[in-house]
Amino acid sequence: MSFEYLALLAAACWAFGSLLSAQAATHLGAFAFNRYRMLVAMLLLWGISLLTEGWRTLDSDSILLLTVSGVIGIVIGDTALFAAMNRLGPRRAGVLFATHALFSVVLAYFWLGETLWGLTLVGSSMLMGGVMIAILFGKRRAEQHIWETNQYGLASGIALGLLAAFCQAVSTLMLKPMMLSAIDAIAASAVRMSSGFLLHLLIFLLGFQVARSHLPMTARILWLVIINASLSMVLGMTLILQALKYGDAGMVAMLSSISPVLVLPMLWLVYKRTPAWGAWLGALCTVVGTMLILWH
Q: Which UniProt keywords are listed (predicted)?
């Protein structure tokens, strides 16, 4: 399977996983939810790696690089994203985080010498614009999150959202040269997840209030955590790493950024509510942009 389709499948995994995460994240709190799903993902990834003996492809240099990537992307990036959501609401924070694809393209140009030309550049621009339109105008005014009416911490929220996007881009691009080697994608994901989980666990053990669960774990919430971890962190991230083996890092980031658009039809099916006009326009731009990229 080509890297374009691997990146699109990863976006679909993240979209479906995010749809299932809302109840669990609200029940446990963002930090506790993230900690639990990283634990589940870490155990699953190491289990698969042991069975397939993918761990044998790891060496000390790759482990160090994967650990740093996990700290930047999972710990710093995710923490900044949750803090941005607290200040701006999920919609506006989502728009800022979507810029990670733009950061990836720019950094890939200077860092890896990757360039976008012709229909690929046009398609990428339409895709990125479509994602942002869908997030910005995909909800009716009555459906806006209560946080979005609060302008407190607007500047810091914007800075944190951009920091989260930048960290996501850097952590992914760091892996591109390494993924060209014989390293196993599942073992690589396991190392990244382990570094993220251990630091989140340290935050919890140090007694920070934000890391504590809002409500006790239940069987239903645990099941939702397991499904989300399996889709988003195990399958989704492994597909991204596999895509990096065969494709440009900037293009992989661009195609995988469409998950907010893929969520829209899923929400329509679940809640039986027709998306707003912005969702339709954003989805149309995203689809056309993706088709131009795939036809390049």
A: Membrane, Signal, Transmembrane, Transmembrane helix
* Residue 158, both tokens: 């914007």
Strand ranges for the chain from DSSP E:
none
Taking the C-alpha atoms of residue 203 and residue 31, their distance in angstroms, rounded to an integer, is 10
Tell me the C-alpha distance between 178 and 189, whole Å: 12
Helix runs in 71-215, H state only: 78-88, 90-97, 100-112, 118-137, 154-173, 176-179, 185-205
CB 62 within 8 A of CB 224: no
pLDDT of residue 145: 47
How far apart (Å, rounded) are the C-alpha atoms in residues 151 and 141?
16
Q: Which residue numbers in the chain have pLDDT < 50?
A: 145-148
CA 23, CA 19: separation in Å to the nearest integer?
9
Amino acid identity for residue 271 in this structure: Y
191 and 67 Cβ atoms separated by less than 8 Å: yes
Predicted pLDDT at 292: 83
State the pLDDT at residue 153.
66
The domain ranges of the chain are 3-294
Distance of alpha carbon 271 from alpha carbon 263, whole angstroms? 12
Q: Indicate the DSSP class of residue 54.
A: G
Which residue stretches of 53-89 are H helix? 60-70, 78-88
166-170 contacts, C-beta under 8 A, 24 or more apart: 166/100, 166/103, 167/72, 167/73, 167/76, 167/77, 167/80, 168/73, 168/77, 168/97, 168/100, 168/103, 169/100, 169/101, 169/103, 169/104, 169/107, 169/253, 170/72, 170/73, 170/103, 170/107
Q: How many CA atoms lie within 13 A of 171 on its CB side?
A: 28
